[in-house]
Amino acid sequence: MSTPAAGTLFVVAAPSGAGKSTLVNALLEREPAISLSISHTTRPPRPGEEYGRHYYFVERAEFEREVAEGIFLEHAEVHGNLYGTSRTTVDGLLAQSRDVLLEIDWQGARQIRAAKPDCVSVFILPPSRPELERRLRGRGSDAPEVIERRLHNSREEIAHAHEFDYIVVNDRFEDALDDLQAIVHAVRLRSPLQWARHPALIDALLAP
Ligand SMILES: Nc1ncnc2c1ncn2[C@@H]1O[C@H](COP(=O)(O)OP(=O)(O)OP(=O)(O)O)[C@@H](O)[C@H]1O
Ligand SMILES: Nc1nc2c(ncn2[C@@H]2O[C@H](COP(=O)(O)O)[C@@H](O)[C@H]2O)c(=O)[nH]1
C-alpha cells in the first residue's frame, strides 16, 4: 500500500505589525483544514493571550533546556525573546496529511527551508513605513520601547523578503487575504503562480 502524501508546510513571516497574525487568523477561518503551529516563547503574555492558544509561554531556562533536548524544528531570538517550533507537532501533523502553517521570523524561515525544502514561504509587507508604525502603535499591545525596537528591527526582517517564495502586500486587508488564499489554492493544485516581487516597495521600506 502506498504512503499517503504528506501535508504542505506553509511559512508566513512579516515585520512586526504588518498584520501577519490578523491575516493568518482570517485565512484559517476560510481554510479550516490548515493547522496553525503554536510556538513556544519566553515573551511574557500580552493581555488576553492564553497559554496553549497563542503560545506556550515558558521561562528562558526551560526554553534553553528544550533547545538542548532538540525538541525544536527551528528556534530564534526575535526582538529580545526566544521563539521555537515543536518538531514532533509539525512532523505529526504533516504525517497525517494535514497542511501546517508556521508564523515565524526570517531566521526561523531560513532554518525551515533547510530542514523542509518543500515548504512554501510567504512574506507579508506593509504598504509603507508610516502605516507599519500606525498599526504597531494602534494595536496598543506593546510598551513604547518595545514598539521602537520592533520598528527598528523591521528593516532587517524586510531585507530578507526576497528569500521567500511569495510576497503579499497587506494594504487593503481583504485583497491581501484573497492573495494569501490564492497562494494556498495554487499550492494544493500544484500550479505555481506568477507573482509580483514588489522591488520598489521593498526599496522604499528599506530607505533611510
Ligand atoms: N490591512 C490592514 N489595514 C489596517 N490595519 C491592519 C491591517 N492588517 C492588520 N491590521 C492591524 O494592524 C495591527 C497589527 O496586526 P497584527 O497583530 O496581525 O501584526 P503582526 O504582523 O502579527 O505583528 P507581530 O509580529 O508583532 O505579532 C492590528 O491592530 C491589526 O488589526
Ligand atoms: N523563529 C520563530 N519566530 C517566531 C515564532 N513564533 C513567533 N515568531 C515571530 O516572533 C515575532 C514576534 O512575535 P510576537 O508574537 O511577540 O509579536 C514575529 O515575527 C513572529 O512571527 C517561532 O516559533 N519561531
Question: What this model shows, in words?
Answer:
The protein has 208 residues and is an alpha/beta fold. Strand 5 and strand 6 form a beta hairpin. The longest helix has 16 residues. The mean pLDDT is 96. The structure holds adenosine-5'-triphosphate (ATP) and the ligand Nc1nc2c(ncn2[C@@H]2O[C@H](COP(=O)(O)O)[C@@H](O)[C@H]2O)c(=O)[nH]1. The site of ligand LQESDW3C has 15 residues, from strand 5, strand 6 and helix 4.
Considering the chains and any ligands shown, give keywords for the structure.
binds adenosine-5'-triphosphate; binds the ligand Nc1nc2c(ncn2[C@@H]2O[C@H](COP(=O)(O)O)[C@@H](O)[C@H]2O)c(=O)[nH]1; P-loop_NTPase; globular; kinase; 9 strands; cytoplasm; transferase; alpha/beta
What value does the average pLDDT take?
Answer: 96
Question: Termini distance?
Answer: 58 Å
Shape: globular
Which spans have pLDDT < 50 for at least 5 consecutive residues? Answer: none
Strand order in space, largest sheet: 2-7-1-8-9
List of distinct ligands in this structure? adenosine-5'-triphosphate, ligand LQESDW3C
Helix-strand category = alpha/beta
Q: Based on DSSP secondary structure assignment, what is the total number of beta strands?
A: 9
Helix content: 40-55%
The percent range for strand residues is 15-25%
Largest pleated sheet: 5 strands, parallel
Radius of gyration: 17 Å
Summed up, the helix count is: 8
Enzyme class: transferase
InterPro entries: GK/Ca_channel_bsu, Guanylate_kin-like_dom, Guanylate_kinase, Guanylate_kinase_CS, P-loop_NTPase
Main location: cytoplasm
EC number: 2.7.4.8
